[in-house]
Model the fold of this input.
Amino acid sequence: MDQLKQEAIKSYFAELVESMDPLRVMDHLAKLLSLEDMEIIREPHSTYQERNRKLISILCRKRETLEPFERFVKALEKTDANHEAMAKDILSTYRKSQEFHFLMLTTLNTVCISLNNH
Done:
């Protein structure tokens, strides 16, 4: 998963760890997660907070081409109203970061062009 998407999720890490239902969210991620991933998350002696930490950690390590962020947001949206609200917050944070990142790159590019013209 790319850095901006990880940062958006980490912005809500505490809320996700405390409020997310890891098994219900995981059910919506069956095509993304391996059987081994699911076994790690389902570990019988884990608290739901530990399961949430494991799920987030696994998702952050997934290749960007698998669209782990997008699938995670959709899984949250499909779970229930509380999870849907978290999905909206995470997506909003990501979009703001993306806009800021784009603005910074555009500004840097403008400065470089200006310096090259002098």
